[in-house]
Amino acid sequence: MNQDYIQAHPWSIIEQGFDKEQVKSSESLFSIGNGAMGQRANFEEHYSGETFQGSYIAGVYYPDKTRVGWWKNGYPEYFAKVLNAPNWIGINVFVDGMPLDLNTCKTVNDFKRELNMKEGWYQRSFSAVLPNEVEIKAKITRFLSLDIDEVGAIRMELSPVNQDAEITFEPYLDSGITNEDTNWDDKFWNTTGVQVKNNRAFIEAHTMKTNFATCTFMQAQAGYNGKELDAHPDKKTDTRVSLQFKQNVAKGEHVSLTKYGGYTVSRNHDPSELVKVANTSLDKASELGFDALLKMQKEAWAKIWEMSDITITGDVKAQQGIRFNIFQLNQTYLGRDSRLNIGPKGFTGEKYGGSTYWDTEAYCLPFYMATKGPEVAWSLLEYRYNHLQKAIENAQKLGFTNGAALYPMVTMNGEECHNEWEITFEEIHRNGAIAFAIYNYVRFTGDYSYVPEMGLEVLIGIARFWNQRVNFSEAKQKYVMLGVTGPNEYENNVNNNWYSNYMAKWCIEYALENIEKINNEYPEDYKRIMGKTNLSASETEAWKKVVDQMYFPYSEEHQVFLQQDGFLDKELIKVDALAKSERPINQKWSWDRILRSPYIKQADVLQGFYFFEDHFTEEELEKHFDFYEPFTVHESSLSPCVHSIQAAKLGRMEQAYTFYLRTSRLDLDDYNKEVEEGLHITSMAGTWLSIVEGFGGLRVKDGELQYSPQIPQEWESYSFKINFRNQIVTITVEEGKSSFEITGSNELGIKVDGKSITLVPGKVVTA
Amino acid sequence: MNQDYIQAHPWSIIEQGFDKEQVKSSESLFSIGNGAMGQRANFEEHYSGETFQGSYIAGVYYPDKTRVGWWKNGYPEYFAKVLNAPNWIGINVFVDGMPLDLNTCKTVNDFKRELNMKEGWYQRSFSAVLPNEVEIKAKITRFLSLDIDEVGAIRMELSPVNQDAEITFEPYLDSGITNEDTNWDDKFWNTTGVQVKNNRAFIEAHTMKTNFATCTFMQAQAGYNGKELDAHPDKKTDTRVSLQFKQNVAKGEHVSLTKYGGYTVSRNHDPSELVKVANTSLDKASELGFDALLKMQKEAWAKIWEMSDITITGDVKAQQGIRFNIFQLNQTYLGRDSRLNIGPKGFTGEKYGGSTYWDTEAYCLPFYMATKGPEVAWSLLEYRYNHLQKAIENAQKLGFTNGAALYPMVTMNGEECHNEWEITFEEIHRNGAIAFAIYNYVRFTGDYSYVPEMGLEVLIGIARFWNQRVNFSEAKQKYVMLGVTGPNEYENNVNNNWYSNYMAKWCIEYALENIEKINNEYPEDYKRIMGKTNLSASETEAWKKVVDQMYFPYSEEHQVFLQQDGFLDKELIKVDALAKSERPINQKWSWDRILRSPYIKQADVLQGFYFFEDHFTEEELEKHFDFYEPFTVHESSLSPCVHSIQAAKLGRMEQAYTFYLRTSRLDLDDYNKEVEEGLHITSMAGTWLSIVEGFGGLRVKDGELQYSPQIPQEWESYSFKINFRNQIVTITVEEGKSSFEITGSNELGIKVDGKSITLVPGKVVTA
């Protein structure tokens, strides 16, 4: 843990007291989003201290050109960057002509931030003495509407404490912004028009290269003692426009400004109509008014929580942690737009670029599937189906043929945009996660229709890739896979990474199984797909050979599969023998040192045991867990959750809880000293998994929900819901007792600790 | 071979006929240099066609900042670029006001380029019809003086063929130049002053960041019918200055312009005196005059050839090839300045950046040692001694301690400036070449004094590095070296690269041996060095363990050492089974495909057999050669020479000759389709080695020269000289007969095919 200034509270994230050192960190933690746009918790008024400005529009990116590996072929031409978008939140404030700037105020008292997760709003309040001795009390409330998702609303209330004062609001828009992260210091935005009309303003700007046209808009109104103030257009430059409201405010009285703003984008509208659509959105928002909009916001969030909340009693920090994770996942992706996906930083920062990693399939899908329903999960699968052609082209660039598909490591639009050879070209296990998600979807939802409709083509492309990617080793008389990077990115270009080999074998088997099934059960689809893919019998025969003769490195001595060839040649010093000063090794060690060390960034062999739990005995799991976990530094946010689930399965609740803490409050407590760069959104789904699959022991087997509930001794009880095939099952777990409830009108058979139980609507069943 | 337009000639490189497609290629091939500066064969007059402008000043570079591997620690901050320097050669020409531009002329006849290697000058002549129908005959001669190495001279002679014409010369200087290769489109030069004085002009400019101050200067004079023309200052901008000479020239008459130009640099002079020093140089040059300077040039080159020429009779292309290589090596490095080194492209292009690779120690040192003498070789060793502290710091950045030294992969000033992790951090075998060069120097020169004076400190730093870089494998009960890139860069991050392991073991042994020797024979030096390095007995004990228990991968089946762990898992398809369309693989295949293929870029195991020939039997060499060569694509220019030497040793002269051809005319015939980017300077030393060590079978053993001469059947005879311990030994080889001569006053015992012979000055001995 690197910070502990966030106050424990079951429903809110709260900071009290002004600490300049925490500003960037809090800007991440108090970020808000509504799936369509997002906003770091930057101050509305000017702040001259250290800050990381970030306003983001879903799906709007810039392809920053890459320049690496100039003598290595196959790199993508660009690295898609999440873009800092024009600023719509800005409201400069002047008090008797003196700018309000918390960095230069004489004192800042009663500073408080609250992110109310239950209702979906963010509020900041303080009392500050300006250099001109005027003391000002302020309260600013902000939210991004879930109902009108192009609009955000801000209410700023100010009151002079110690004397009368002239207060000036200057709400503004600004497209002269920069990105923290740029390779070539390119200009990312081109502004084409700046307009003011009464109390509204509009900036039209498009991204360079990708040419996303946007209109950033605002409307501002100010009131004092029940009367509305006049808006004066203030300054207008090529990239900035502001309005001005001025009022002499009596000591103790309040003046307030309400600002609506946001973006209309050519992704959703005709580019020539952006200003018009912006006006319509502003009409809607202002007709409703701030309070009605906020009321709708509360109702919308209530609906989300109704389905996705996890309650924990007896441990308020754990309660806060899990809700923070669930809240952020919902701020990032709502499943409304199948062109969107779940970026690793969501709308809270720029790092990593791109929006879609294997995180989506490996970690996020189960969360959205169980808390939202099958149609959102379908959207996520469809996203990959829509990118299949690009995945085939991507594989072609690397020399693969015949419809082999390699999904990108990172993407915005289906094209690869990561640019390190050891990842882009070699971290190919990602392909397996795409196939596994299809399997997982069918297993959970019982809906097979995706496979004949779209999924089988994806599975065939993936199987073709693996079949071409392995080669037969005369020395081993087995198929081997050379030159890969596994999920543990602290190894590069290794041979026979067990996870990748296992995934390859499984993907081919799963494709074969589904080809067979669709041939038998969906003859029309079968004909169509075979025609489209040109799959031949000799091809599938070759696949079967790979399945039968795949090589898996194994240590007889340790009775474990080896993460890769040669793993045992390393200096096998366990993590607990490493000095604290050496960690995190990714900040302290050079890359070659990390590579030749035994240290594991995130679950690798164990990730395979997680996905394919049923293929191994609990004894085998234990052996592998005990062999690998001691070498695991968990420097990926995706690592602790898998270990937490497996520790729980092994009945090691204390260890499971330790891992859980690390994932659930990773950002709140800033374990990796980087929260100021943004939040770890995708790993938040892992936290959810830790409770649901770890403590709750939830599995779906043979079309049936199975639980084996346990509870950390630190908790009194916890409870979560699952949308299982359109019935909502709620489990509440206490020490020694779990109770179940079900909605709807049908009974549902489940298993608890291996015992069958029937749930009847309207009745609480205790096990 | 990708081109064959260069005419065969024993002493000159000749192109006839104007082909726009060849311009960039010829700009490389006809480059001139004098060790202090260099110039691609760009036209003096404006050329609107495809061209690659390049003027280079030795030791002047720019640290282009890198942006790769943002999450991988230890990268250097910059990549030193060879810099295109301000243009001093430019002479624009106007004929009746119409610019002479070979790209737009109606016809270009009798176009000829000649690079006279014997005398060290370059000449271009042609007859061109301009768009205004005036036909102009031209002859331009250019050289960079070996005597006044800051000065180059150009004489341009023009004559109207078909009518009288007004001819205008505009000699100019221009610092508004760009680099082909830049990561960030930075501006590399800042111009601070532009001056004209009579017929002289000066541009003062310094490089950004590195702040090398330079004065680019010129003096021009023109003559017609014995009378000197007046110089008119023409235009002057912030980065350009020109003079103007105008003359009405009668049909058939000649007008000529002589231009002296070049650079004075703060590396050699007080930065405030650069213009003054430039004036002095111009005084010297112009007092001597063009013809006298050219005469001195011929004499200086005659001296170089006297010692370094290799003659071949019966094969003019081979003769031309070897002289081209020797000529370029001498154009690049003369051993006068121990701060300089031998850049892989010399003064002929920008590619690769930096100036010093392991090429210097592994390939170039023997050439300079044998054709120039021990003091030049000492200079090259001293260069590395001077960088020892930086090498220690470089190792520290990667986590090594206690004075371990890792020499950079690429450097200008001792700091690492390459930036690919698999090379920068892992291609550590380079350290071995530095140690081997010390061994080679002592072996060849018999001068041990370098070791106590400087070399032992270097050897200790290197041994320390290897000792820390290996680790003990419990599984193998041996020391292993994980995560390296060997000389074969088509493998990255492999374990137990045989060459690297062998080199490490040898380096430690060689250090131990020299510590012992210096302890016994140079007690004062021993004390000083031990004090400086803090070397302890326990440390050397640890080294001995590594020497005794180093692991070497070996295949019992094939009876060969394996290039690295797992080599036999590859799909072992030989190169001759690869389709032509797939090659060169570094242009056709993605990087991951290359990595998992068995294809070898350049000698790796065989490179070790080359360095440590005496450690292995000829039978072992044969086995390894026959195993590895069929997988070798020789896509490094450094590959064929080693194979040529080894094929010759195995008595396979036909194969040896084939490899020789590939190295000797690599650039002239453009085997790798890239000569337009510049020449492969360092590999030219490999060509020399192919003849001297390959065909001539020269070795130094037990302080004695040993030959085992053979001759390719395509040749009648060949001859080369060796400066062996200050006596010049000349060998002339014909079929079935070799004759030897020696200079000086002492006899010298040598071995020829194992038989001892005594050489007596003044007598030709035949064996």
From TrEMBL, chains A, B:
Residues 698-759 form the Glycoside hydrolase family 65 C-terminal domain. The active site is at residue 489. Residues 323-688 form the Glycoside hydrolase family 65 central catalytic domain. The keyword Hydrolase applies. SUPFAM superfamilies: Galactose mutarotase-like, Six-hairpin glycosidases. Substrate binds at residues 358-359, 601-602. One of its GO terms (biological process) is carbohydrate metabolic process. Residues 15-267 form the Glycoside hydrolase family 65 N-terminal domain. Keywords: Hydrolase. One of its GO terms (molecular function) is glycosyltransferase activity. The keyword Hydrolase applies. Pfam families: Glyco_hydro_65C, Glyco_hydro_65m, Glyco_hydro_65N. It comes from the Bacteria. PANTHER family: GLYCOSYL HYDROLASE-RELATED (PTHR11051), MALTOSE PHOSPHORYLASE (PTHR11051:SF14). Belongs to the glycosyl hydrolase 65 family. This is Glycoside hydrolase family 65 protein. The lineage of its organism: Bacteria, Pseudomonadati, Bacteroidota, Flavobacteriia, Flavobacteriales.
